[in-house]
Amino acid sequence: MGKVYRDAKDALAGVLRDGMMIMSGGFGLCGIPSLLIEAIRDSGVRDLTIVSNNAGIDDAGLGLLLQTRQVRKMISSYVGENKTFAEQYLAGQLEIEFNPQGTLAERIRAGGAGIPAFYTKTGVGTKVAEGKPTAEFDGETYVQERGLVADLSIIHAWKGDTEGNLVYRKTARNFNPMMATAGRMTVAQVEHLVQPGEIDPDHIITPGVFVKRMIQCPPGFDKRIEQRTTRKRVLA
C-alpha cells in the first residue's frame, strides 16, 4: 500500500488510541502539523501525552486539543501564549514535564537513535534534576536524561515525494526532523508532493524509511503567524 493518504483522517485511521504518546513538530505556530492536529481533535481520543516544544495558542495548534481536554500531560520546553494551558495546569487538570529546550531536543534525537539515556550538565542543582540519577565525569556533575520514543509522531514538511523523503523550509524545520525518527509511527503533512527522483538527494533531510504515512496540504492551506513583526516603511 502506498504512503499517500487522501486526508488527515484517513492517514490516522487505526493509529489513534486513548492514552498514547504523540510527538508534534513545530515551534510556536511555525512548522506545526495543523491538519493532523485537527484530525486528532476530531477523533475524540483522550488522555494523551504530548511531546512538543510548546502548546500552541488558545485557538490554534495544540491549543485545540487543550480546549477539548484531550491532553493529560505535556512534555515541553515553553508553554507561554496559552491561557487554556495555564488554567488547566493551575487547576490540577494537566500534568507538565518541563525540559530545557536543548535537553528536550536531545531527548527526542536520542530516542530516534536508539539511545535510552544520556548525561548533561544542564539542570544540575535545579528542580529539573530532582529524582534523576547523577554521575561525575572529569570532576563535574551531570544529570541523566532519558531518550523519548513516541507511539506517533506528526510532522510538517515543505516538500516530500511519494516515498516519504522530506525537505523542510527554513525555521519550519525546527523539531520536525528529529521527531520523524523518534516515532514508532510517523505521519507527515507536506505542502508540495512530488514523484520519486524529483528531489535532489542532497536536499533530503528525512529519509523516507522513517515516514509511514503522509498527506498533501490542500490548495490555500492556511499557515498562521503567531506574532507578526515588521519594520516601519521608510518614505523617500
TrEMBL record:
Keyword terms: Membrane, Transferase, Transmembrane, Transmembrane helix
Keyword Lipoprotein appears in the UniProt entry: no
Superkingdom per UniProt: Bacteria
Alphabetized GO MF terms: transferase activity
Alphabetized Gene3D superfamilies for the sequence: Glutaconate Coenzyme A-transferase
Matching Pfam families: CoA_trans
PANTHER family documented for this protein: ACETATE COA-TRANSFERASE SUBUNIT ALPHA (PTHR13707:SF60), KETOACID-COENZYME A TRANSFERASE (PTHR13707)
Name of the protein: CoA transferase subunit A
Species name: Belnapia mucosa
